[in-house]
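input
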Amino acid sequence: MADEHRTQLTAEIAASPLIAMLTEPGSPAVPAVTEELGKAGIRAVEITLTSPDALDAVRRSVATGATLVGAGTVRDRETARRAVDAGAHYLLTPGVLPEVLDEAAALGVPVVCGAFTTTEVMEAWRLGAALVKLFPARLGGPAYLASLTMAFADIPIVPTGGITADDLADYFAAGAHAAALGRPLVGDALHGGDPAGVRHRAAGLLDQVRAARA
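output
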């Protein structure tokens, strides 16, 4: 089952190569934003577990059926279990955490595993990550990603952290399998802005990515 879910996640993200990061899970707008992202063609969102009500945001977003919903910033086994109990389709880690990868395998859910150095990228892949999250990507930028993808052409790498709409095309030119973005996709929708605006913004960025990959 774990391999099946891993294949589904990588296929969904390959088809729609942007992951939307919802970093303010306490906002009541999270499910509505998730729905708008799904309508725009975004197939995966990350809800960071950075507040006490984050797991409830995961539950409510999963209930929309709009996208695959991932639980982010998972750092230990217990959090992994609670996230999966809340319905998370996949987990994301900030770094290489063998216990989380091990627990996720037992639970049958894929992991987008954080890494930065070449050793960490190889270790994350060896331990069974579905995708490797280059974090924080802004420290090395597209040039650093290009070096990694040249060395590890078989490993799908997702740059995350500090990516803007202006440099998105450069990351894909450097070999990104996908990219994770927060504010460039979500805007002010989690702060009282119109959730419907997310759909237009996300669709435009997806068009930009497809043009960069053509």
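quick obs: The two ends are 33 Å apart (CA to CA).
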